[in-house]
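Team,

Forwarding the record for the chain on the shared tracking sheet. I've put the sequence and predicted structure together so nobody has to dig through attachments.
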Amino acid sequence: MKLSIITVVKNDKKNISNTIDSLLKQKFKNYEYIIVDGKSTDGTTEIIKKKIKNKKKIKLIIKKDRNLYEAINRGIKASKGKFIGIIHSGDTYSNNKILNTINKYLKESADIVIGKLIYINNKRKIVRNWDYKIKKINIFNSFKIAHPTLFIKKKLIKKIGYYNINYKISSDADFMIRLSKVDKLRFKYIDKNFVFMKIGGLSSSFNGLSIKILEDLKIYYKHFGLFFIFLYSYKLIYKLYLYLISLIFLKNSSVR
């Protein structure tokens, strides 16, 4: 089952090598890797070219983009795999057999496979565990899907549409809501950690968080009208609860 893995990057020379190495170490080899570089100016592009030299499975696209989601769309459109997975620069797969595990369930006719995500800081200390056990995706739990763990059939993306590039940060939320409205979706949650994700991105900064909240509100109102007040409040309360639980149980934990 051929997979297309996409990484979007711009000016991240400190972290991009870890992400590329994480994929190259995978035991599963039936994949293509597409790196979309938004014309980095800090040396990232040169690092990528050196890392992927003579590696036929890896395709590098260098083009200025409007935002993260335009770059993701560009990677999806260039892909040839049956399923799409996205791993951001700085993030790494949890172990070298995780793609084998994911492929096993994709072969069982799933449209979507998701798993668990662990947030780590620069010292590789665990700061949060994203672990929502979902049996079926719907409008009440679409926000519980950890986007970096999502593996989705490319035909399904074409059916619901690509990421909306009018949103700078929350386009994945809009994408998940549209996904939740698909009838007879074959969905599989795997109770394993897929990705270690580094904190410190745009959405976690003060300015980024304010943009995210405004975009979230627009998205929820667009899809649900005034019912968005209930759904969005439920989302905030649930995420706060999980965050507090993480603080209690994950204190001083670290990733090897």
